[in-house]
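Protein Entry — a single chain follows
Fields — amino acid sequence, structure tokens
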Amino acid sequence: MSGIDDLPPYLLIAQELRDLIVRGDLAPGAPVPSVREIASRWQVARTTASKALAALREQGLVESRTGSGTYVRPPHAAPGARERFVRSARLGTAYSDTESVTFPFVGLSRAPEHVATLLGLDIGAPVIERRRVISDTEGPIELSTSWFAAEMAEIAPPLAQPQQIRGGTVKLLADALRIRPVYAREQMCARTATGYETAVLGLTDAAVLVCRLTIHDGSGRSVELDEAIYPANRWAYRQEYAVDL
């Protein structure tokens, strides 16, 4: 089966540059490497470098300015969970310099049915709830809520505090519990936004994308549930792969 490494060189280069843009390492308005710079850095022909920039333009990530160069466009995409994990592991934070985070609620609450099911708890059991609103230069792009079993407040106290956690909650849990997170499971669906989500995200329509992510240890136990709500005009999941015909 073909994978990402089977993509044409220009798409591999475009993917690397896209990751830099999505993670915020190349901020809106920042110059993108020129055709000459790409050709030199990746040791490819200028035609390949030019096609890589063209691919980024087609994705709406960059724009060319006559006589000036190519620049990162204002974001129209919210990073997905995997992209935030990568950034957190590399830089200690899941958020770019262009993003801000507020915490409308952090504390103990009662587990809704889906939270209880995914964490293996009883419905209504006490849980830690970490609710965050993530915004960029254009406004709110994500309403993200993480849930943990209530006893984690004693094992990993920062989980119950309304502040960013250096390295992310997964690393904090792994260190506190002395476990190694083995895999993550994502589930996505579209649904009608609640009144709260509409207000927080400033929605003009009722559709949202919901991503539920569980983190599992070696025994298969789910130790964290994240639920991210994205406005309909934000692409939170994008992937490039080879197509065999």
